Amino acid sequence: xxxxxxxxxxxxxxxxxxxxxxxxxxxxxxxxxxxxxxxxxxxxxxxxxxxxxxxxxxxxxxxxxxxxxxxxxxxxxxxxxxxxxxxxxxxxxxxxxxxxxxxxxxxxxxxxxxxxxxxxxxxxxxxxxxxxxxxxxxxxxxxxxxxxxxxxxxxxxxxxxxxxxxxxxxxxxxxxxxxxxxxxxxxxxxxxxxxxxxxxxxxxxxxxxxxxxxxxxxxxxxxxxxxxxxxxxxxxxxxxxxxxxxxxxxxxxxxxxxxxxxxxxxxxxxxxxxxxxxxxxxxxxxxxxxxxxxxxxxxxxxxxxxxxx
Length: 309
Description:
- By secondary structure, the protein is an alpha/beta fold.
- It is 37% helix and 20% strand.
- The chain contains ten helices and 14 strands.
- It has helices at 12-24, 54-60, 77-86, 131-149, 171-179, 199-209, 230-241, 252-257, 275-281, 288-308, and strands spanning 2-7, 27-33, 44-48, 64-66, 68-71, 89-91, 94-97, 153-158, 160-162, 184-187, 194-198, 218-222, 227-228, 247-250.
- A seven-stranded parallel β-sheet has the order 3-2-1-5-7-8-12, with helices on both faces. A three-stranded mixed β-sheet has the order 9-11-13.
- Strand 1, helix 1 and strand 2 (27-33) form a beta-alpha-beta unit.
- The longest helix is centred in the C-terminal third of the chain and has 21 residues, at 288-308.
């Protein structure tokens, strides 16, 4: 039995990973987070503490051989440094979940792993200005420390993740409108194309990478090959819901002025290449229609549960 330590693990991809590992039954699963959303799952050992508190890390997490550490919630270089400097035991493989947001805006699409990275915060993103830049700095810190400590590491950069347990108002923004038979506002252009990835694919890739020398020292995008526009999204949502969606097209200017909270850019692409991971792990991504159908089925179960409460 291999010891797997998950930093985070209560939300979205982290929770899916825990469930996947429990189903495989070849792993001892440990989770370290602040305990705001306890898993309370048989077979999972939960440690409660703050990752920015080095003393807590030393006191709470036991000295073990950690075959794999999966870090979902490092957002700054300090998060990486504090964890690596205070986690007791032997680390055989450290996996950091980063983001494709680390890349600078370029015209050479799709964006692959060698593309230029951000050189500064993105002020145009307001409260999220530091997110991508700090993730990139965190990658740099991980690379530096793991090389110094002789720890094998892998960085994964997912594109837009959708799927079960998603707490971000992305696909559920549209599902809610469809459920309530409300009009969906879309930009009146076809310029924006997006790369998505199903959360289950993210998790399967993580598990396939465990102690896999083919991904040691690598930073890899996780991104399905389909390019999805707002119009294509609506086609998929109509197919999986069986509903005719009321759509109103608006100019980008009018959408911005009316503060319509569309979850993706209105007139710019987010297109990334995830082919390297396909080759290294012999992996095939779930088609967007298939993954979104499963996501919608989960959404309906959640809605039914809310009605019973």
